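for the recovery benchmark. tokens below, seq after
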């Protein structure tokens, strides 16, 4: 395959001559790949090489276990436990990533036995983390959140994994709303750019993944949205949902904490720090907390407390759960 897509605001080009891996990458970004136009200019170019020899390392400086650097380039061996070695070189106006499939025995066996795990790690190493890091070099940080339209407004949904964000989002977009991502975005403080990947929800009819979930294409996808409200999700055993205003400090804390707790980003922090140290580009530690506070200062925030199994859509939850404006917010607690 040779395809392009917009990933967290960056123009990504992937060149992969390996048929099996090409299918995997196509499924990683369903309905988003395009053939490159003659005048296409990539921000991030990923070239998968059908070569199992190691990248040359003579004269390179050891950076850490599994990483070496030289002249502003970094080689990562078995990047993100994916089985791929990556040679990453920032240039003035693009990021060049060369990849070779060279798995240690453990990763080779895991790729055969634990296929969903391998799919997620290969996607992260090849089409997600490089784009997220390059976006970070341009002032956008990763957030575990989802931006979507809700009627005539745009909401940024935040909360730890497993709360129900994907289920609410998928119900909204299948009803005609638009979203820029399932649960990973990049943001510099106002505009939110989506990471292209399938949505993972409970049910059937899609590629089977861990935790009893399946993958489906995300309908109504858009590249960018500007949130007008921040909705922090929480779940308890109450019988009905509740919506109440949330202090900006608490909202920012929830958004930042949910990002650091996210399993999808567990390997990203080391990936980003290693590249920052090895290349001299980008922040060693992305300013997640600072950006979360910027968002919370610019838009009103509320907390949506879900019951055991909410059946309402997001718009209905926000409307039905809203407390009476004359009522003390503390009295709206179930």
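predicted aa per position
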């Amino acid at each position: 395959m040779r395809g392009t897509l917009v990933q967290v605001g960056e123009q990504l080009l992937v060149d992969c001559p390996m048929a099996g891996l090409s299918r995997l990458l196509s499924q990683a970004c369903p309905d988003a790949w395009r053939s490159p136009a003659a005048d296409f200019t990539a921000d991030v170019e990923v070239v998968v090489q059908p070569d199992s020899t190691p990248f040359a390392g003579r004269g390179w400086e050891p950076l850490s276990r599994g990483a070496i650097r030289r002249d502003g380039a970094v080689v990562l061996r078995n990047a993100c436990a994916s089985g791929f070695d990556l040679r990453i070189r920032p240039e003035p106006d693009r990021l060049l990533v060369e990849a070779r499939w060279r798995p240690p025995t453990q990763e080779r066996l895991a790729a055969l036995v634990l296929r969903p795990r391998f799919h997620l790690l290969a996607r992260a190493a090849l089409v997600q983390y490089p784009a997220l890091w390059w976006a970070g070099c341009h002032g956008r940080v990763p957030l575990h959140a989802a931006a979507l339209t809700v009627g005539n407004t745009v909401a940024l949904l935040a909360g730890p994994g497993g709360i129900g964000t994907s289920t609410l989002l998928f119900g909204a977009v299948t009803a005609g709303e638009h979203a820029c991502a399932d649960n990973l975005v990049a943001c510099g403080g106002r505009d939110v750019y989506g990471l292209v990947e399938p949505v993972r929800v409970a049910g059937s009819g899609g590629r089977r993944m861990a935790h009893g979930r399946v993958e489906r294409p995300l309908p109504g996808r858009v590249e960018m949205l500007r949130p007008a409200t921040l909705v922090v999700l929480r779940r308890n055993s109450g019988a009905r949902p509740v919506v109440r205003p949330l202090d900006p400090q608490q909202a920012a804390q929830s958004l930042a904490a949910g990002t650091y707790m996210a399993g999808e980003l567990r390997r990203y922090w080391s990936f980003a720090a290693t590249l920052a140290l090895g290349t001299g580009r980008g922040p060693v530690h992305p300013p997640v907390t600072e950006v979360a506070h910027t968002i919370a200062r610019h838009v009103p925030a509320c907390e949506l407390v879900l019951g055991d199994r909410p059946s309402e859509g997001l718009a209905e939850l926000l409307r039905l759960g809203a407390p009476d404006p004359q009522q003390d917010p503390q009295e709206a607690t179930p």
